[in-house]
Specification:
Elements (H helix, E strand, L loop, with lengths): L10 E7 L4 E15 L2 E9 L4 E8 L3 E6 L12 H9 L9
Antiparallel strand pairs: 1-2, 2-3, 3-4, 4-5
Length: 98
């Protein structure tokens, strides 16, 4: 799939995005590859002109693409560094695999 092969500088046109169902162009500014427990996914950090947009792409059994128009900090939802350490040590109690 060409969506998994994008590099910085690529331009995409998104349609019907967000509450306002907007159409807009984004430019890829960074490509991040993540791997965990046998899964692999790509996060594209993109520039919309006035703000950043993130695309997460996972090509497992089906191609899944998620668009994030904003990101919040963990502290904004009440999670701190100690919580993350505890979650990492107790993955099974938080829905993760051992």
């Amino acid at each position: 799939n060409c969506i998994t092969q994008l590099n910085p500088g690529a331009v995409l046109h998104l349609t019907s995005i967000g509450k306002e169902m907007e159409d807009f162009d984004i430019t890829v500014i960074a490509r991040h590859l993540y791997q965990q427990d046998g899964y692999e996914w790509i996060e594209y950090e993109c520039d919309r002109g006035d703000t950043k947009v993130w695309l997460e792409v996972e090509d497992d059994d089906d191609l899944e693409i998620a668009v994030a128009l904003e990101k919040i900090k963990l502290l904004e939802i009440g999670v701190n560094k100690e919580d993350l350490v505890r979650m990492a040590k107790n993955k099974d109690s938080f829905g993760g695999d051992k």
